[in-house]
Amino acid sequence: MASYIVLSYWDLALASVLVLIDAGLSILFGLKIHRSLLVAAIRMAVQLTLVGLVLTALFSVVSPLWTGLAVLAMILFAGQEVMQRQDRRLSGWWSFGLGTGCMMMSSVLVTAFALLTAIRPSPWYDPRYAIPLLGMILGNCMTGIALGLNTLTTSLMLRRASVEAQLMLGATRWDAAAPVTRDALRSALMPTINSMSATGLVSLPGMMTGQILSGVPPSRRSNTRS
């Protein structure tokens, strides 16, 4: 008897009915998001299928080159998503490069720190550990950076007259944009703060829940390498 629950294609099709209901409500109330909702659902299913096949092959080949290429691809796709979420995009390469660069520095730094200090797999670039960990961190970074950049560009447009007046009076660009920058940073950090405040009571970390279901005591630090 299998120790896990097997979902059939009919089970997945039944779950997709909820997406169709949301699309119907969008049409009913004139929200005009039914098309993007259905496209996102189809895209998610295709992406998960392809990623499952890629990860199966990637996990069987422990190579720093392939792990690095997978990390780069994940960051580039995340940067594209951040750019698409901006109401007012920056001109030139800044539209894509700023968000992508921020995510690369933050997510890669945190992932490398966790791999080298806490998890310590052998080798440290083992894709079984590096790719899932980066995916979780990158998902959180993507939301915060998208909100921060959107707040930054939108607020600068709304406060354009104020910023230009301060510049004309001799203020530096950093001083003139300081209120906007603070608002952007607060917006970027708010999802993380809310998630941390609700963790344990409202939301449960997937990694911790998985270890508990596998029989690991909550108080035990698991660092099993198999």
Describe the model:
With 226 residues, the chain is mainly alpha-helical. 74% of the residues lie in helices and 0% in strands. The chain has helices at 9-15, 17-29, 34-59, 64-84, 94-119, 127-158, 160-168, 173-176, 178-198, 206-213. The radius of gyration is 22 Å and the shape is globular. The two termini are 23 Å apart.
Keywords:
226 residues, mainly alpha, globular, disordered C terminus
Describe the structure in brief.
This protein is mainly α and 226 residues long.
The amount of helix comes to over 70%
Shape: globular
Q: What summary fits the major beta sheet?
A: none
User: What is the percentage of strand-forming residues?
Assistant: under 5%
Number of helices: 10
Note the run of SSEs as H and E: HHHHHHHHHH
- Average pLDDT, rounded to a whole number, is 87
Tally of strands: 0
Determine the N-to-C terminus distance. Answer: 23 Å
Radius of gyration, whole Å: 22 Å
Low-confidence stretches: 222-226
Category from helices, strands and their pairing: mainly alpha
Topology at a glance:
Elements: H1 9-15, H2 17-29, H3 34-59, H4 64-84, H5 94-119, H6 127-158, H7 160-168, H8 173-176, H9 178-198, H10 206-213
Helix pairs in contact: 2-3, 4-5, 4-6, 5-6, 6-9
